[in-house]
């Protein structure tokens, strides 16, 4: 079940982060933690859980390329949020969003021609992009404004996300429960799963999401954001090899560059507006 798999990944990543959290434990005493910080932390974990829940679910219902294309479209979501909140936008925001949305609509045309691509799967990936924006904003506040050390922030957020996903899996997915024989909350310890989940924890978990939070302190956000737009390209290569040469559909080839270009345009505009 996808929500359970997402919970397993969060659990395993939490175990990987635990020694690093303990290493930074002495820094926790220097923090002046307020109730608002705790609430933001909980909100961040909820957004992270929704992000992974929607994204992993989408992987079961659409192609890897489509899933990565839409889940990395968060720069477009940020612009939409700016418009809703009445924040100032620049011409690049509008044109980049328009180009990205046009590319998304063109890409969605492949849902009619491919059995591996579905509209509901693509929509779930988009929901994952919406959710991760909340995670980004919360993380930026706690890491930059409140000066939380990386692992002091990453461990509780990841651990709580695993809890929310486990509860959602228990409520929504069949044959899932805390101690279920087939799909238990801690079933990833089974020999058939432990290596795969461990890879997700050390690779995409520690080096991926936690790594992004870390390098944000040393690299401009625009570099990190544009770098994330390479995920669909890498995912397409992986899917091509995994499925023995089955590549994206025609409309994906047409729309995907427009979607990525629009997201990149928005990201670069954000960087210029902060200079």
Automatic annotation (TrEMBL):
CC per GO annotation: membrane
Q: Where is the EamA domain?
A: 1-108
Listed A to Z, the keywords are: Membrane, Transmembrane, Transmembrane helix
> TM segments?
38-58, 64-85, 92-109, 115-138, 150-172, 192-212, 219-238, 250-268
Q: What is this protein called?
A: EamA domain-containing protein
Q: What is the lineage of its organism?
A: Bacteria, Deltaproteobacteria, SAR324 cluster
């Amino acid at each position: 079940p996808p929500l359970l798999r997402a919970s397993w990944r969060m659990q395993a990543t939490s175990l990987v982060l635990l020694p690093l959290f303990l290493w930074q434990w002495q820094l926790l005493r220097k923090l002046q933690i307020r109730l608002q910080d705790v609430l933001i932390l909980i909100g961040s974990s909820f957004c992270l859980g929704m992000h992974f829940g929607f994204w992993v679910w989408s992987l079961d219902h659409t192609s890897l390329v489509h899933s990565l294309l839409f889940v990395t479209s968060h720069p477009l979501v940020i612009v939409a949020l700016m418009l809703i909140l009445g924040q100032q936008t620049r011409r690049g925001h509008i044109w980049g969003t328009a180009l990205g949305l046009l590319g998304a609509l063109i890409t969605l045309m492949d849902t009619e021609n491919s059995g591996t691509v579905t509209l509901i799967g693509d929509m779930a990936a988009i929901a994952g992009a919406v959710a991760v924006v909340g995670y980004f904003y919360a993380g930026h506040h706690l890491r930059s404004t409140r000066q939380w050390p990386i692992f002091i922030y990453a461990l509780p957020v990841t651990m709580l996300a695993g809890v929310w996903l486990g509860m959602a899996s228990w409520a929504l997915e069949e044959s899932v429960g805390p101690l279920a024989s087939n799909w238990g909350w801690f079933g990833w310890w089974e020999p058939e799963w432990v290596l795969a989940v461990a890879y997700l924890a050390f690779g995409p978990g520690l080096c991926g999401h936690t790594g992004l939070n870390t390098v944000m302190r040393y690299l401009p956000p625009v570099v990190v954001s544009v770098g994330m737009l390479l995920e669909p390209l890498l995912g397409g290569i992986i899917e091509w090899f995994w499925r023995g040469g089955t590549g994206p559909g025609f409309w994906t080839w047409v729309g995907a560059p427009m979607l990525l270009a629009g997201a990149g345009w928005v990201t670069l505009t954000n960087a210029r507006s902060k200079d």
